[in-house]
What does this fold into?
Amino acid sequence: MDFPILSAVTFLPLAGAVLIMLIQALTGRQAEASGESDDRVLYAGLVFSIATFLVSVVMLFAFQADAPGYQLTENVPWFGGINYSMGVDGLSVALILLTTCLTPIALFASLGSIRHRLTEYVVAFLVLETFMIGVFCALDLVLFYVFFEAGLIPMFIIIGVWGGVDRIYASFKFFLYTLLGSLFMLAAIVYMYLAAGTSDIGALEQFAFDPGAQTWLFLAFFASFAVKLPMWPVHTWLPDAHVQAPTAGSVILAGVLLKMGGYGLLRFSLPMFPDASLMFQPFVFTLSVIAIVYASLVAWRQTDMKKLIAYSSVAHMGFVTLGIFSFNEVGVQGAVFQMVSHGLISGALFLIVGIVYDRMHTREISAYGGLANRMPVYATLFMIFTMANVGLPGTSGFVGEILTMTGAFQASTWAAAGAALGVIFSAVYMLTLYRRTVFGEITNPALAQIKDMSTRELICVVPLAAGTILFGIMPNLIFDITRASSLRVLSLMAGG
Amino acid sequence: MVDLETLLRAMAPEVVLAAAGLVGVLAGAILGDRFTGPSFRFGAIVLVGAAVLTGLHWEGGRAFDGLAQTGPFVNFAKIVSYLSAAVTLLMAEGFLRRHGTQRYEYALLMLFAALGIGTILSSANLMVLYLGIEMLSLSSYVLASFHRDSARSAEAGLKYFVLGALASGLLLYGISLVYGFSGGTDYETVAAAEPDIGLLFGMVLMITGLAFKVSAAPMHVWTPDVYEGAPSPVVAFFATAPKMAAMIVFAVIMFRAFPQVDAFKNWQVIIGIIAAASMLVGAFGALLQTNLKRLLGYSSIANMGYALVALAAGAEYGGPALLLFMTAYVVASLGLFGGVLSMHREGGMVENIHELSGLVRHRPALTLALSILIISVAGFPLAFGFLGKLAVVEAGLAAGLLPLIIILILSSVIAFGYYLRLILIMWVKEPVEPFEPVDAWVTGTVFATAIASVALFVFISPLSDLAQSAAASLAL
It folds into this structure.
């Protein structure tokens, strides 16, 4: 058996977390008092997350993009008929790289803004990274469920400990909402295991569930993924969680955790329940269009910057579901692209908000204005991401939106028309946000001495800007990785 | 004439427990207070020895002309029960010493309670079952009121006794009806009898009595009060060994004495209703509790509800699930009550959940261990409890009990609310005064059970295979 590279990518952050905890326990906790030694913990976490990123790059080179099916597989019996089974296809590889790339950025962005209980903070992020990567690697339903659920705990603690004023409420809402959806999925997983006699994802893709059962299984999985994604009307946990979470938490939440929903739909719902997916297409389209239009309008009226971006996430995830359920290559490829692209853009937007929040300790839009006068670099970068979020050609946001809409247009003209409305609205709310915070004269005297971005902040944001533009110009970088897998999902759906 | 070899094959651990209990009584009478210290270690060694003996006679056998019968299914439960009784006995010593109530009678009562557990698990006859239950119950009543100078403890003991006596009466009445309508008291005769209305009444009364013993709703009302009032190490015992034994014997009776599920108006429905009520009572009841012991009481009601789902699924599907789920529950409960016993401040024990505030600042390792145990008892991934719950869900779905599974899911989410609150209090709230250190047995139990919960999550395969094969013996 070859070197288990997927296990290495998955568990390297966990190993780092354990090591950091051990070192802390052995050297005593007096380090807590002095701020300087605390930062060392964060650097240690950073080293591990960057190492994970490097290993994931190695994985990318070991991965053969043009071969369909699962690669780099590992298989160890666990119990009963359930295996510890790992493997990746193009979809997973793209999302794993997104995860390993965003985690160090999120950790680095926390430097300076997180002041208390830094060890636990770093440990929580590293543990979370393990579970996120595990979700994308798991090739066994039960294993997938374990990673999928386990990630809730570190995120719960991140929001609950380092969050804003209403963090307790937000963390509970986040946890219980997601748990309710997931437990229905667990019942469905057990049912599938009993019906097919295996929980292996590869085998289940070939197994034909009868259409009646498919309907219920689809709904159970959909309950979980729709909450995670989130889709209207089960999106209400997201604005609360985003507003209360610390900046880095929001970056991971928007950048990676939401993508698990889209990943789940592509990995399970379409290949395993093709009949039910077809049957529910109009239903999902309706929800997606409502999400796009409604969330955009709600975003427009927000006075809190983070809440605005949170609602914009709901709208952009609407494009993902639209693309997935158009059941054609353009739509599915667009949806995958949109997920990666939204991970970069929304992650960056939360960082952008975090930068001024660290200086002013408010997220109220009305407290800002005229930032361009004092922060030209910031204004420039903010402009790039505003345009990317609107979907300006040349940025990755454009590629995702145009493809998902093209895909949806082939499936349903009305859905595409509704989604197009959302694109217009997205320009409205993003440009309003940008105008009110960046342009104009400085009206708030507190802003008179605000400083432009520091080197550390630039290191966090610039790579994301580079990625957004790079993928906007050369989208094939992603399509080459995901094409074979997207086609495979569609062929499984047609053949099943 | 009792054939010694057959007897030992079937009931060696019980013989040892009975003999050791009597030796202990003699030793206590001769040595007096000098026996107090050694008695706890003596009791623990005997209990561990009983567990080892059970393991050596894994296949079991019949004894006393068929009055007793053992096999892998009940032996699995015996081993878990004896070991957990040994752990709770060791955890009790320091607690009782601090309260000035350390007496050798405690250890002996534990031995006799364990003998009661062994008897009910070995029973193949309703009379033996009743004797065992009485032996366990009478020891338990005394243990519950062991702090006889404390009004709370005395109240707990009295409450437990009055309600327990009522339940025993119901059980006995049920047994007498079953005897009258089937013509015998051994399980096989009952199973072979023509099902009629009298037998049905008897069965329902027996279910009522047994539901009291496993503290399933609506016979659960004693649980929170007794959990709150009785001395903590005694509650640790109540929550583990007798629960395991009573649940398994409940299953044995239903599977072996009443195998004709349909003939008895489908007892699945009766058990299912009790299960659903327990899950909901446990989930909602705990939401507003601030006393940790009361909260754990409701948590155990909910968990018994989950176990009853497996019971309702029948022997074929539910057997292995019951063993796995109950073992996971016992392991996690031992650790959680170790946590309760760790809450010691100058001036005595504290029990309010807010006393745990900010525990992570003073005792990070203890907090992590307790969090793992809470996750396990809540049935969340990364701990043994999840696999137990997974097995229950699997059993329930395989038996087609979809409504019960939906109730299980909903009540799990609700129950998670209070488990999360505990985690939140420990990790997020501002710290209060630190706890005084307690004896190594308690701390050791918390860490050992936490490690076991994670280890058994990863390396579950041998245990689940064992439960699988143990339950297979039941079907024969």
In short: Chain B has a mean pLDDT of 89.
